[in-house]
Amino acid sequence: MTKNIIVTDINGNVTGTTYPKRARGLIKSGRATEVDEHTIRLISSVFTDAFSFETEETKMANIIDFKARGFKLVPECTSNRGTRLIVTENEENVECFEIGEGGMMTEIARKVDLQKDQDYVFRFTIKSRFVRGENAESMVSIYFDEQGDGYTYPLDRADKNRFKPVICKKTDDGLLRVFELPFNSGDSESCTIDISVHDMTAWLYPAKEADAYSALEDIDYDQWRQDELHRVAKYLSDIGGSIGETMVETLSGLGDFVGKAGDKLAKTVSDVINRPSSSDAAAEKEADEDIEEEVILSEETTAANDQAAEADAKAATEAPAAEKSES
After folding, report:
1. Could you give the 3-state DSSP secondary structure of residue 85?
2. pLDDT tens digits for 79-110?
3. Does pTM top 0.70 for this prediction?
4. 219, 245, 274: which is the final residue of a domain?
5. Cα separation of 80 and 184, whole Å?
């Protein structure tokens, strides 16, 4: 982090330099105005007198950056889903805390030591995907002695962005936002930073300088949601068309099957209708047996007649021979 922003007093005299994020904070709080890309001007002599090297270093020290190792799953949240990871983002290996799951609530927390009556900023990067569930949300609570004694920052719900990020970028797999959450320690010398998500998954990283995200597309949260809704609607429409074509093909194939089955069924019914009854079959069998019996009798009669004729012929032949022998 480089102090490359020139700070001037109300008369334009250079009083020192500061960090880009500190400069944006001074402008946002109304303490300074932007002269150009690299210069800001303090708008009051009171602010000028208070602006010194020591004060500036203290302000920068009061930025609490997110570190995955410092946070732990809250034991009281029984549905916790979270893992600390080392991932590659923008060609760099960084610590990440992946938390949350659909239908579940996950809560992580960390205790931080403070100085009394000091302004602090908790800074972190969160990446998430598009969620449609009405119950999906993420928030940060910074409390002191007990929950409720502090501040709550509702980051988002499924329908809106409730606390504005300082950086909002579109990525290939979701939305990346950098948040800077301001708070004052008051009389407390410590606080607990609690991060929770419900019915969604989020990835938490340390925040980088704005230049590190310059390659990503700037996008407003509401516009990103609208784009995602259109994308989902188109996807469902395409799926619906594909299902429709599949149904037409299926019904066509079913029609052919039913046609063939109908032809087979008609033939079966025809065979059943044309099949003789059991009484007709018995009569037909009896007639066949009578015919067979008549054929057998006829064959037996014919054989007997043939035998008789043969005997007569033999007798006629033997009679003349006997007469001749007697004479």
Report:
1. strand
2. 999 999 998 877 788 899 999 988 899 999 99
3. no
4. 219
5. 29
